[in-house]
Specification:
Shape: elongated
Helix content: under 10%
Structural class: mainly beta
CATH topology: Immunoglobulin-like
Largest sheet: 5 strands, mixed
Distance between the termini: 53 Å
Order of helices and strands: EEEHEEEEEEEEE
Number of domains: 1
Strand order of the largest sheet: 3-1-12-5-10
Number of helices: 1
Strand content: over 45%
CATH architecture: Sandwich
Mean pLDDT: 76
């Protein structure tokens, strides 16, 4: 019998912008799936990189992208602490530091856009850390991630 955990992270967004400035955020992949199926997955953790978002912003704007979770990963009466999940924007230069998910907003991307008008996909790596927190009964564990994008 295979013991597996399927995680689904559902994405929502918020936008903050200066008056009269063109900014947009588009969710390209609202459901991110991570599968924990083997002993090695439980020992080493699992990760997946997804092109989750696309940002569109006018030039010379300071941007910030934040993410927060609605709560722990839940499947019926079972849960995995949200602190077992990490996110990292891997499509920026320099690559941003990995952040532990929590119910408090975490800045996962910040910087200044220099081109006249920029539209770029954002690839985010989602990682479930190894350890006893993920030794849970088989199931689809879910939470909702809220992304907040500001360009000021």
């Amino acid at each position: 019998m295979k013991h597996w955990v399927w995680l689904s992270l559902l994405s929502w967004l918020g936008i903050s912008q200066a008056r009269g400035q063109v900014t947009a955020i588009t969710i390209l992949d609202p459901a991110i799936d991570l599968y924990v199926q083997t002993a090695a997955d439980f020992q080493n953790g699992v990760s997946v990189s997804e092109q989750t978002l696309a940002l569109t912003v006018a030039a010379n704007k300071n941007i910030t992208l934040q993410v927060r979770a609605s709560g722990n990963l839940i499947s019926g009466v079972n849960s995995i602490p949200i602190g077992s999940m990490y996110v990292q924007v891997t499509s920026s230069t320099p690559v941003q530091a990995e952040k532990q998910l929590s119910t408090t907003a975490q800045t996962i991307l910040s910087g200044t856009v220099s081109s006249a008008y920029s539209s770029r996909p954002i690839t985010i790596k989602y990682r479930l850390a190894p350890g006893t927190d993920i030794f849970k009964p088989k199931g689809a564990y879910k939470t909702t991630l809220t992304f907040t994008f500001s360009a000021l």
